[in-house]
UniProtKB/TrEMBL annotation:
NCBIfam families: crtI_fam. The lineage of its organism: Bacteria, Pseudomonadati, Pseudomonadota, Alphaproteobacteria, Hyphomicrobiales. Coiled coil: none annotated. It comes from the Bacteria. Its cofactor is FAD. It comes from Blastochloris viridis. The keyword Oxidoreductase applies. PANTHER family: B-CAROTENE KETOLASE (PTHR43734:SF3), PHYTOENE DESATURASE (PTHR43734). InterPro entries: Amino_oxidase, Carotenoid/retinoid_OxRdtase, FAD/NAD-bd_sf, Phytoene_DH_bac_CS. This is Phytoene dehydrogenase. GO terms for biological process: carotenoid biosynthetic process.
């Protein structure tokens, strides 16, 4: 039994199915993908969430487990450049797999930083190989398991922040931004997340950045097909309201309709804090009690505006990061002060740059994303949303998309309220618990529940964390902690 058809839940279902489990997946949404679902509106196709596909082999493995090739079902296209960063002064930086191209840009932008850039890339590779490769798909059961990374913590200065480490290698503020913004993609604060996350720069270079033709949601659809072909069942538009128990052992789930589904094991892909607080009674929660959940740090949230236009901007790349003038201050407003800053940094997604099928002929489909504080702030999104959207539209009109205001033909937006009320994430956090050292590995809710037997957790709120490769890794960890179906049947 899997609660939630996000990427973590889908990955878990495929892996359990391949090991002989008969799997039922229940999700309150109308289709698969969770944050990574897709939707159509007025002839335009939108990805709701993830757009940057890294570590493609994590997806490929799931098809291989079913004796298939992913490329026969969901073709991936390698992106070059990976993305364009536009700084407040108008200068640009294209991230790419091509080392020469990247070094040439650094040399032009800040010649004195070139040697530091090269040394940084070596550091990023070291963290990738000696930390990420070692720990991303293994369970952390006891505090002693942390010893695996203690040496590396010192060796790679994992006790520093991402921005802190980057700043030791390069001096140019634009390069510091280009190398340090990545934690934002997984809900982390570059000024607080461990320097271990500096691995992302090398991970992108090593495996490339990819796009799934038809949008990321096509991968979710493909995984749902694999589950059905294995004999599994997906039930949509159904809410799980409780994990049923016999003593401290999970026995299945109760749905909002009152019906129960019995199960040998329960895997929750719902937000981990929600799973503990709302789906389980307080008396079984020894570790993840209300006090601990109250004290936890929750990741930032997001404002996303999806829009289709009646014309195209061919010069706008597939992925653009538009940095605002104030980087540190903006991040402090989002994570620390928890106020809606008057300024923003934006991520603009234009899949039609690669894939014309995402919009009617001659048109563009976009989304623009702005990181915002979660609902621990006082922002009233019912009033703030439309003015905020207009401010973003204005910024785009005056920068990348002149003529935008007269060309928007379809539009939809989501605010932190969507993450709280539809995706059931406490405080509308976009990425579960914030990725800081004290909430990572052993300190994050574990993949095999510490509190309830027969309950397992996958997805952004458990180890290793948010982002598509990480949530697929959480599903892979189940292979190490869930007993074989036959073994379970004998008990
Ligand atoms: C706008 C946005 C952009 C992003 N961009 C990227 C990117 O480019 N690259 C990248 O790698 N990552 C990106 N991420 C992060 C990534 O999308 C997420 O970390 C990942 O998709 C989360 O997957 P998950 O397995 O945790 O499940 P989720 O996607 O969170 O899905 C959980 C599912 O559980 C269901 N559920 C919850 N509670 C219940 C219940 N009680 N009953 C029934 N169903 C329930 C929900 O409906 C949902 O479908 C982005 C995230 C967002 C929001």
């Amino acid at each position: 039994m899997v609660i939630g058809a996000g990427f973590g839940g889908l990955g878990a279902a495929v892996r359990l199915g391949a090991r002989g489990y008969r799997v039922t997946v229940v999700d309150r949404l109308a289709g698969p993908g969770g944050r990574g679902r897709g939707f159509q509106q007025d002839g335009y196709t939108f990805d709701a969430g993830p757009t940057i596909v890294t570590a493609p082999q994590m997806f490929e493995e799931l098809w291989e487990l079913c004796g298939k090739k992913m490329s026969d079902h969901v073709p991936l296209v390698a992106m070059d450049p990976f993305y364009r960063v536009i700084f407040a002064d108008g200068s640009t930086f294209d991230a790419s797999q091509d080392t020469d191209k990247v070094r040439a840009q650094v040399a032009k932008m800040a010649p004195n930083d070139l040697a530091g850039w090269d040394r940084y890339m070596t550091r990023s590779e070291g963290i990738f190989r000696d930390v990420y490769q070692k720990v991303h798909d293994i369970p952390f059961r006891t505090i002693w398991d942390m010893s695996i990374i203690m040496n590396e913590l010192i060796r790679f200065e994992g006790y520093r922040t991402v921005y802190g480490l980057v700043s030791r290698f390069v001096k140019d503020e634009r390069l510091r931004q280009a190398l340090s913004f990545h934690p934002l993609f997984i809900g982390g604060n570059p000024f607080a997340a461990s320097a271990f996350y500096c691995l992302i720069t090398f991970l992108e270079k090593h495996w490339g950045v990819h796009y799934a033709l038809g949008g990321t949601s096509k991968i979710a659809d493909g995984l749902a097909d694999l589950i059905r072909e294995q004999g599994g069942v997906l039930r949509f538009n159904e809410d799980v309201t409780e994990i049923t128990l016999n003593g401290r052992r999970a026995t299945g789930v109760r749905l909002a309709s009152g019906k129960t589904i019995a199960a040998d094991i329960v895997v929750s892909n719902a937000d981990s804090a929600f799973t503990y607080r709302r789906l389980l009674p307080a008396h079984v929660r020894r570790r993840w009690n209300d006090r601990k959940l109250d004290r936890a740090k929750y990741s930032m949230s997001l404002f996303v505006w999806y829009f289709g236009t009646s014309r195209q901007w061919p010069e706008v790349p597939h992925h653009t990061i538009l940095m605002g003038p104030l980087y540190r201050e903006l991040i402090r407003d989002i994570f620390v002060k928890k106020v809606l800053a008057p300024d923003f940094s934006l991520y603009l997604y234009r899949p039609t740059a690669t894939d014309p099928s995402m919009a009617p002929a001659g048109c563009d489909s976009f989304y623009v994303l702005s990181p915002v504080p979660n609902l621990q702030s006082d922002v009233d999104w019912t009033a703030a949303a439309e003015p905020y959207r207009r401010a973003i539209e204005d910024r785009l009109e005056h920068t990348l998309l002149p003529g935008l205001k007269n060309s928007v033909v379809t539009s939809r937006m989501v605010t932190p309220l969507h993450f709280r009320d539809t995706l059931l994430s406490p405080y509308g956090a976009g990425f579960g618990l914030e990725p800081v050292l004290t909430q990572s590995a052993y300190f994050r809710p574990q993949n095999r529940s510490e509190d309830v037997d027969g309950l397992y957790l996958v997805g952004a709120g458990t180890h290793p964390g948010a982002g598509l490769p990480a949530v697929l890794a959480s599903a892979k960890i189940l292979d190490k902690v869930v007993p074989d179906a036959k073994q379970l049947a004998r008990h």
